[in-house]
Amino acid sequence: MESAALSAISRHLLRPSSNPHHNSTSEILPLRSFNVAPLRRRFNSLSAKCHHASSGNSSANPSFSCSAVASDTAAPASDNVSTPQLRLRRLVDEFVSLEEPLDRVKLLLEYATSLPFFPASARVLSNRVMGCTAQVWLSVSTDGYTMQFSADSDSEITRGYCACLIAVLDGASPEEVLKMHPEDFAELNVVGSSGKGGVQSRVNTWHNVLIAMQKRAKAAIAEREGRPPVDPFPSLVISPGGIQAQGSYAEAQAMFLSPVESKIKELVSVLKEKQIGVVAHFYMDPEVQGILTAAKMHWPHIHISDSLVMADSAVKMAEAGCRYITVLGVDFMSENVRAILDQAGFEKVGVYRMSDAQIGCSLADAASSESYVQFLDNASKSPPSLHVIYINTSLETKAHGHELVPTITCTSSNVVQTILQAFAQVPDLNVWYGPDSYMGANIAELFQQMAALSDEEIKEIHPGHDRKSIKSVLSRLHYYQDGNCIVHDMFGHEVVEKIKELYCDSYLTAHFEVPGEMFALAMEAKRRGMGVVGSTQNILDFIKNRVKEALDRNVAEHLQFVLGTESGMITSIVAAVRELLGKRGTGSPKVEVEIVFPVSSDSVSTAPVDGSHDVASLGVVPGVVAGEGCSIHGGCASCPYMKMNSLRSLLRVCHQVPDEGGILSAFQASRLNVKTPLGRSVADVGCEPILHMRHFQATGKLPDKLVDQILGKNAESMS
What we know:
Low-confidence stretches: 13-35, 46-81, 192-198, 600-636, 714-719
Helix content: 40-55%
Number of helices: 26
Strand content: 5-15%
Shape: globular
Strand order of the largest sheet: 4-3-16-15-13-14
Mean pLDDT: 80
Largest sheet: 6 strands, mixed
């Protein structure tokens, strides 16, 4: 489930500091005249009303309870020279003058009645505003210097919102439209008496319609200045009729979404014959995932997930009789599977990796560096301290860390609540998070924002905290500053700027490991119901939930999601979306789902990646020519390490087991028989932080054993 902490913080705090449906400048039509005169007359008339202001008997008036406020910023006599800011001030004064929420709603409905006529021919999918509970259509015309808007909705409240926005922004220049911020409309407070969910969905309407207006304004400026249209990111459009790829990178992804039947049969046959289970990470090569997804319909012991669940799934497979487990992931994942199976009593179940070379991970490598040891050494000298380590690290790193500083693992889904609970449970605690520097910085930023909330809002996020306690922990949260995921590192400034220009009105997903700019953008989208920040599973769940909501509305929809994580996620996303769309009966309104890859359209390299790993044999190697990592100038959101898990390797391992001749010895997952510096088993000590996390997930509290270790009451348990 998506992190409650992120949801609450984004709701309370964050402010704003090629697709035929959304990205084409053809939506900027030649200038024509919308008849907003009735709306402006209504606007001026309502602003001049004074209902029994001096009598003090507001209840005598059945329409409004108090008068408009005379403003120092009253608009000039000629509305043509009134700026949007002045018109907004008059509008705000109008609503602020009404003390009763019901009266503000009535005023909003009066504006709705004056909304200019919107022709049925303009109620097309390309004019729909995404992210609104009601259906909203927005049409724009411009000559590059003046913006003219018309809008409509199937909800009268939403029509009122649109009328207010048009009253303020119609006739404005594109630059004036871009100067508006959603919080400028916050004082209207139209729905203050509604339930929390209703309030947020209606606030989202203001925000999302304004964002759509601003997207058109940006396009108008670009066209006026003669700038060529910006090429869209590659994408896949999933519909009941199939999949359409846009861009060469998307085509490379799509080619494996309908796998070859003979390969499926070959894999299923050998898995059944030899009782082999398969656990794979979401970031696998699309060819492998396509085969596995199809094979799962014939063999149940196949599981694709994030790293946390892989070992648990392996145990269930062993309990069901699987004799071997193949692990498609990086090396720390196969190590974890081996150790957890051993702890569960399945020492005889074989565990195999997919390469005879090292399958590394930039984050895991960062946590095994000398600088990380120094980071932990500093932590050990600042008691009481707790080391919160990301699950995506090796058992050896966890073990060595746990002997230096009491340690608990975390995931991108539970890290915020883990740290908040630790601070609440252990007085004067210092928390040391690592190794992902971006995630650490994002956590620190979240806590800074929390410190600005009220006590009540903070307790919504964690009942053990208030403003005073949050402020007190800011100086006691430390994070490692020299580690990152090479994939999520690519979601930097260039990608963010392109998303702002072309996809500001789309759904935005981001892994918690992304850099700060992308994190802030996704959190802003999340605040208006248009984004998610979290784990791979959180991202998948968010997309599924938005698709379910669209299907429940039973109207034609085009949902566009920017995928702010490794592109290997696409196979699981496509499978989930196809399943949902397949439940629709024939004749139902068409729902399309577009997944956007924030990479260059031509970012597929067939050259080998510079390094010691044999990834060139994959045939299609995503990534920058002659280097790891990604950029919009030729790279992609694709992990070169994960792509070492090929279908060829999987079939080879499956056909070779049982490995009586030792041919697969280099493919066997490491069984860590080495000792820690204190002479204990690395496997035993490395699993303990994971068990601490499982206790926290089950109870919401740190286990007593860990607390005793932090406080030094149980020092012998660490030796």
